[in-house]
Amino acid sequence: MTDNISQSTDQTSLDTQQQSLSPESKGEVRSVTHGPILEVNDLKKHYIDSTGIVDRIRSSTPGRVHAVDGVSFTVSRGDTVGIVGESGCGKSTLAETLVGLKKPTSGNATLFENDIHEWVDQNRKRFARNVQFVFQDPSSSLDPKMTIRELIREPLEVHNVGTRDHQNGLVEDTITKVGLSVDQLDRYSSELSGGQRQRVGIARAIVLEPQLLVLDEPTSALDVSVQAQILNLLKEIQEDLDLTTLIISHDISVIRYLCNKVLVMYLGKVAEMGTTENIFNNPSHPYTKTLLESVPKVGETDAKYDEVNPNIPSPRNPPDGCRFHTRCPVVIPPDDFEFEQNEWRAIFDYKLDLRSSKLTYKKIASMADQQGIEKNKANMMELVRDQYALKETLSDSAAQKILTESLTDLIEGETDSAYQTIAEVFQSPCEQKTPSSSAVTDDHEAFCHLN
Ligand code: ADP
Questions:
Q1: Do 83 and 182 form a contact (C-beta atoms < 8 A)?
Q2: Which of 51, 178, 278, 358 is the 20 to 30 A CA-CA neighbour of 125?
Q3: What pTM, to 2 d.p., does this model score?
Q4: Per residue in 344-367, pLDDT tens?
Q5: Quick check: CB of 91 below 6 Å from ligand 1?
């Protein structure tokens, strides 16, 4: 079984490589393949959290980081798919798993119906010829002792592509494709600017005409002035070579500019995916909307994407149900009460903080001390209400009664009971069930209970 896979993998990749490196047959290769070329199925990559010295002494069990936690999607030939989300949501882990640098914990990914990780185990070199990775920091992948010519020629040598003359021809072709000149081939990377080095990194990745090109934050290590040039270059290359590309970025304007499809990730899971037009013009998931609203408008001083909220839950202990429920502005209230949305969000935040012990009697008492407030019941109650923007009078009187009971428990020092009073009654479906995919339109799906 394994041998068959190995043989068919090698043969398929070899055939496609040979044809794709031959300009005459390039169009033919591209037209014979229909449907997705990359299929990612319930892919998970969990890290075992290395414990610190204190944990080791206490011999506590290491935690699990749910970096990528059940991601499925497909990529068709010629697609440029953008993977976007805040820092720490698992974008790089996903990319590194897809290019075979990391093994998945479970699930799989196939390229041309061949399991990527079996392929890597059996013949990493052949795999590398089909799948190329462009790193965020170009300098890290360029040997300072090699000339630019040697750097771009190296992948051709490793893969025994053609004669030396043929290789030199491909190198000269490729250097001009990335906007550098043949004169620069005998220089060293230390003599180039950051943007020029990234161009060399891209040249090394495309010289083999890979079937799949993966770029991880291709512009974020560069000066703002150079970023636009590299983006334009990537767009040109994409159009000229009709590459299939995955682009990882926390910057949604980069994704919007370069990609025809977008996958929005939140805490290791896909929140929404669809065509760029759908995602940007008709976002469905509340997280995508929040992400898009956080992008500064034209004319604002900081033209860079801003992190939505530094208070993101940790993938070490991700929330149950919909992972976004701890921040979602439209989190679903329980059926039994009539809440206005902002009332409910405030009560829900209060409940979640009681549950995680971010809110305790001790913390409120120490807040009162810091602010020099006398710790009587009225003051303590007001402090908690202020902290969570809890209204004094709720629109639903039954809810009002339960909340007041909980608040009273809290300020009387009964933190556990304050939580127990509301734990069951103030429950959202969003914290109970993981949302499954629902179609917004063709080619557009979101993972949200509201759909
Ligand atoms: P992103 O690219 O979206 O910023 P990453 O894939 O780099 O996210 O990281 C996802 C999560 O996995 C983060 O919480 C990060 O700290 C954690 N992580 C990444 N690499 C490791 C590792 N080798 N060991 C443990 N945790 C890791």
A1: no
A2: 178
A3: 0.86
A4: 999 999 999 999 999 999 999 999
A5: yes
